[in-house]
Amino acid sequence: MAHIRQLFLQHLAQTSEFPLMLEIERGEGCYLYAPDGKEYLDLIAGIGVSSLGHCHPKVTTAVKNQADKYLHTMVYGEYVLTPQVRLAELMANNLPDTLDSIFFTNSGTEATEGAMKLAKRYTGRSEFVAMKNAYHGSSQGAASLMWPKDFTQAYHPLLPGISHIDFNCDWCLSKITEKTAAVIAETVQAEWGLRTPINGYLKKLRQRCDEVGALLILDEIQAGYGRTGSLWAFEQYGIVPDILLTAKGMGGGMPIGAFISSKEIMSVLSYNPLLGHITTFGGHPVSCAAALATLEVLLTEDYIKDVPKKEQIIKEMLKHELIIDVRTAGLWAAVEMKDFDTVQAVIKECLELGLITDWFLFNDRSLRIAPPLLITEEEIRKGCKIILQAMDKIAEQVYA
């Protein structure tokens, strides 16, 4: 019989020519375990998904309890399902009053697609302004928002009417006009290697959108759910978007996303035409049950409150001759080095030493750190020591 690794290469569609090939048997807390028992400290949490670590007992209990009641019943929005309703209620209770209508999706990409349709339908406009070096998903609409075009050129033509501006660029805001349906921006630019708003940029962006009647879509698919030290990252910048995107850390490991707006704006999807946006599996009861448990834990435990202390440990410990810069946004860090080869060498050595990290899509010179929010201070120190140990070995090879 073929080995599982052979079957993986033979039957699963590959996304690169060099898959990581890390075989995982189980996960618990901040750790993943290989079939041979090797332990890995997970410092990327499935790219920010496992916000409460792997197999959090309250999440898994919620999943099991809901699975015993019912799974799929009918396409989203047709039946009154308690997990969906309770989750939507708790989310709305922890958002500004103008963000009180929630459309559940399967993923962040689908949340982006839904938000784009909503903005076009509500404004009657068709043009979008997106930020350079931002990532909002890989389906054709979401991919049309991406610049540079390295990851999309092979699939052109994509959607027309999309222009791109630089994040944190004040004079670029003039490109937002009365023809713009919406501007979409990440509250913190993730895949560019963590770039935070400066000089009141988001307030200026909000003001410009208001001046020309464009909607502001904030993508918190990675930045939301406590990652930056507040439940929603935009809370730190004194603005409220017209549409909010969330996913990843929302489900505690289960697939779910959402685009969120006001009842007034969201209502346009229900007429002319009827069923203006629909999904079969979005808001799946089991995923909603997991997401509800996740949010309840985040609201009752101190994980979000403790983010600044844990962030400080990373900033204090990660100092090395290979490191050019360390940028953080809460419990989230980009550790910049001189080039992609150095980053890949450090990632590989970290794996040998039992630690999982990664890089950024539009900044392959930086190491990604985004552990579960429940990681302890001791585990953070352990992780930083392993990274420094890996860097020591790489530096010996480079400077030998």
Descriptive report:
- The protein is of the alpha/beta class and 400 residues long.
- It has 2 domains: 4-55 and 303-399, Aspartate Aminotransferase, domain 1 (Alpha-Beta Complex); 58-300, Aspartate Aminotransferase, domain 2.
- It contains 12 helices and 15 strands.
- It has helices at 4-11, 45-48, 57-67, 82-93, 108-123, 140-144, 201-212, 263-266, 285-300, 307-317, 340-352, 377-399, and strands at residues 26-28, 31-33, 39-42, 101-105, 127-131, 162-165, 180-186, 215-219, 243-246, 257-261, 325-328, 333-336, 355-356, 358-360, 363-369.
- β7, α7 (201-212) and β8 (215-219) form a beta-alpha-beta unit.
- α4 packs parallel to α9, α10 (307-317) packs parallel to α12 (377-399) and α11 (340-352) crosses α12 (377-399).
- The chain starts with a helix and ends with a helix.
- The mean pLDDT is 96.
